[in-house]
Amino acid sequence: EIGMGLTGFGVFFLFFGMILFFDKALLAIGNVLFVAGLSFVIGLERTFRFFFQKHKMKATGFFLGGVLIVLIGWPLVGMILEIYGFFLLFRGFFPVVVGFIRRVPVLGYLLNLPGISSLVDKVGESNNMV
């Protein structure tokens, strides 16, 4: 429960920091809370193993490098690197997320709209396993 709370607050601070024109302090707090929350949810050892798998080193480098750049004080560049690393790290989860969201009543309807459906199908057909 603590881990989910930390992760939720981390996502909130990251989102709020981006809305407020990439505020350095909010983005730094959001990054620290997100990584700490992830560690609480799945454990320190599993978090370390997830980030430092051989085939995920490039993604981890972008993600953690982006966090470091945000902490140094270049929030826009850091967030771009973080977002790229995040998508590389978690691309194996996207088909599961798309399948879940398609079962939610209102969101499922939105994902089945003509323009959005083809884009979501491309994201959802990823065969990369985590």
Automatic annotation (TrEMBL):
Coiled coil: none annotated. Keywords: Golgi apparatus, Membrane, Transmembrane, Transmembrane helix. One of its GO terms (cellular component) is cytosol. The keyword Cell inner membrane does not apply. It holds the Pfam family Got1. GO terms for biological process: endoplasmic reticulum to Golgi vesicle-mediated transport; retrograde transport, endosome to Golgi. It is a multi-pass membrane protein. It comes from the Eukaryota. The chain crosses the membrane at residues 5-22, 28-48, 60-77. It is found in: Golgi apparatus membrane. Its main location: Golgi. The keyword Lyase does not apply. May be involved in fusion of ER-derived transport vesicles with the Golgi complex. This is GOT1B protein.
